[in-house]
Please model this.
Amino acid sequence: MTYDMKPIRKSMPLRYKQWEQLLQDAGIDKDEHLDETIGLFNNEGLLCASGSYYSNTLRCLAVSPERRGEGLLERIVLEIKRRRYLDGVTKLFVYTKPEAAMQLEPLGFYEVAIAYPDVVFMESEQGGFTRYLQSLTPVEGDRIGAIIMNANPFTKGHLYLIEQALKICDVLHLFVVSEDRSFFPYKTRKMLVQQGTQHLSNVHIHDTDDYMISSAVFPAYFLHTVDKAASAEARLDAAIFSKVAKRLNITRRFVGDEPLSPTTNLYNQALLASLPKEGIEVTVIPRLEAVNAPISASRVRKAITEGEIASLSGLLPKTTYQYLLSEEGQALITKKR
Model:
C-alpha cells in the first residue's frame, strides 16, 4: 500500500478529525504546544500515522494499530527531522512512554533519563547530555547547593531564595532555564540574574541547555491528568538533576514554596520524594512577601502589561528595575503588549 504525506491543521476538518481519533485510539491527549503536524494517508484517504513537533521536540507520535510494522513511524520521524534540519534545528528531543522508546532507538534517539513508569526523555545527538555534563566545572566546597530558576524576570523573591540558600551552603550553583519561550528572552533573564547577584560570592551561574525541564513546555499529552504530569515531570527532573549533581558534587537543592500554584506545589512534593533517594536534600524556602502577597514573577509581569512599572520598585532588585526603565527594556515591553 502507498501512503501520502500531508499536513494536518484545524483548517482541514476532515483530516483534523481523523487525527483526533488516531490520538484517542493511541491513548494520547492533544498537545496544546504544536508548531506543525503531518500524517500519512492511504489511497482511501484514511490517516494511518501522524507526528508533530514543537520547537525542537517531537510530539504526539501515533500509528494506527492495523498499520504497525509497516515502517510508518520511521517515515514520520525522518520527515520531521528533515524539516527541522532545513529550518536549522539539528538537535531534537522526544518525551515518550518507556514502551515506545525501543521504537525510537533505531531512528537515532538516545536515552537521557527515565522516570518509571511514565516517561523517557531522549535526544537525537549521541552523547549530547554527556558533553553538557562535561561543560559544567566543579567548584571546591563543603556544602554545595543548587537552584533552578526561570527568573522571568529576576525579582527580590529570587534574590531572597539565593540569599537564604547561601546561609546554608558555601557554594551555590544557579541554573537559569535556557528555554526561550518566556516573556523575557533567555539572554535578558540571564543578564538580570548576573547583575542582581554580582555582589554575592560563591554563586556560579549556568545554562540549563535543553536538559533541565521547563514546566511550560513539558509535554503532558500522554499522561492525561495534571497530577500525574506534575509527578512525572518532577521525577524526570530528579533523574536528570541527580546526574548534574554528581558532576558538581551538589548535595542540596533549594526551591521556593508555591502557595499560589497547586500544580507547582505537587511538583515540589514529588521532588521531595525523589531527590533524597539520590542523596540530595531538598529545602523548601518560604516566599518573600511584599504588600501582603508573595513576590512572584507572574505578579511582576502582570503589572508590566498593565503599565504599572512604577509600582514594582519594591518587588525588584535595583538592576532589574533599572532595566525595565531603560531603552532596551521599554522596547521589549512595547513589543510584548
Summary: The longest strand covers residues 47-54. The CA atoms of residues 48 and 66 lie 8 Å apart.
